[in-house]
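Q: Given only this backbone (358 positions), what sequence would you predict?
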């Protein structure tokens, strides 16, 4: 396993600098993509024509941020081959960045390594009941923290949950986005053209919605949590970091239900389930309609997910328990694939294959 906070110094830097004309650059602190937060380790032979490897792998690409940072990067390093390493596959934004600023693209699954690091050891704990010991009383758990700005799809998902009266499940939703500092009712304004009643639907809810024992929606990214609540639920509703546009980009959020031994539905970009299956995990088309993963329209895809949730939510408690029991083999496969080395070996082959491209 790779310690994710040491991946640049301990894995990439020595691997890349075996070739003397290679310099490596990444962002610190974690999550930043600002030019001023670049860590610059120059090549051993620091000439102007040295190749440069920029790791934009912690965060998804957004055009305005790409333009701000890469404009400065190419000005500083205006000679030599430039390489851009991301955690996005089949991405219009990666294509844009590389074509506009003359980078060679490379890919590896950064967030897969992050999940392996952050969620290590929970398989040797007793915090979550084994799947066969759970009593299912609710349809889903849906944590939501950052809901404005580039995460607005979470509000759209919540709109369908609220409008279709699925609020008896475990749901969190802030009244004010903790990062964007904008009220949820104001944040949904751009969505009114598609859903004219969206403001009234949110105004009818008592916000914030907190999980028991929580206030102010604490960040849970680098740990597993909510064990008792999750153990009551048929599935985990993963609202991913990105859910629009042509790109494949999953984060550690997708691996939370896997490590909790839970089924899941992913609110992400088209093809997210197929992308996850390419790493050896199994999904749940045997039990509910996963055709939402093929939907090209981003808004319609969330509507299809809502329809699946509504169908499941009308089931009796006994029916939910029976369905959950039937899914235990699948969740066990995913859990073992994550914790017993299968996933890590796929990631390692991918990562070393990428380095060999350099």
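A: Predicted residues:
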């Amino acid at each position: 396993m790779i310690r994710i906070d040491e991946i640049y110094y301990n894995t990439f830097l020595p691997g890349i600098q075996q070739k003397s004309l290679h310099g490596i650059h990444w962002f610190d602190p974690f999550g930043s993509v600002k030019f001023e937060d670049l860590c610059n380790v120059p090549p051993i032979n620091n000439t102007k024509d040295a190749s440069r490897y920029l790791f934009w792998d912690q965060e998804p690409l957004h055009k305005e941020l790409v333009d701000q940072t890469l404009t400065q990067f190419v000005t500083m390093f205006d000679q030599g081959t430039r390489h851009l390493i991301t955690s996005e596959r089949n991405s219009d934004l990666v294509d844009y960045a590389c074509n506009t600023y003359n980078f060679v693209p490379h890919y590896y699954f950064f967030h897969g390594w992050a999940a392996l690091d952050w969620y290590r050891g929970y398989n040797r704990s007793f915090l979550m009941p084994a799947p066969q010991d759970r009593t299912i009383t609710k349809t889903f758990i849906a944590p939501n923290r950052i809901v404005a700005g580039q995460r607005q799809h979470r509000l759209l998902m919540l709109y369908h949950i609220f409008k279709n009266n699925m609020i008896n499940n475990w749901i969190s939703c802030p009244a004010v986005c903790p990062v964007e500092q904008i009220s949820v009712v104001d944040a949904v304004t751009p969505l009114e053209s598609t859903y004219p009643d969206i403001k009234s639907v949110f105004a009818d809810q008592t916000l914030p919605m907190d999980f028991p024992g929580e206030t102010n929606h604490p960040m849970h990214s680098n740990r597993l949590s909510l064990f008792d609540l999750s153990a009551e639920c048929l599935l985990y509703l993963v609202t991913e970091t990105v859910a629009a546009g042509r790109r494949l980009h999953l984060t550690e959020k997708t691996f939370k239900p896997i490590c909790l031994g839970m089924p899941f539905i992913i609110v992400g970009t088209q093809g997210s389930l197929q992308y996850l299956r390419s790493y050896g995990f199994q999904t749940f088309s045997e039990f509910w309609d996963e055709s939402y993963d093929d939907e090209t329209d981003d808004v319609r895809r969330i509507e299809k997910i809502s329809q699946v949730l509504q169908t499941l939510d009308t089931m009796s408690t006994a029916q939910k328990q029976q369905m959950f029991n039937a899914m235990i083999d699948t969740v066990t496969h995913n859990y073992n694939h994550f914790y017993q080395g299968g996933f890590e070996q796929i990631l390692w082959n991918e990562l070393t294959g990428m380095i060999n491209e350099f």
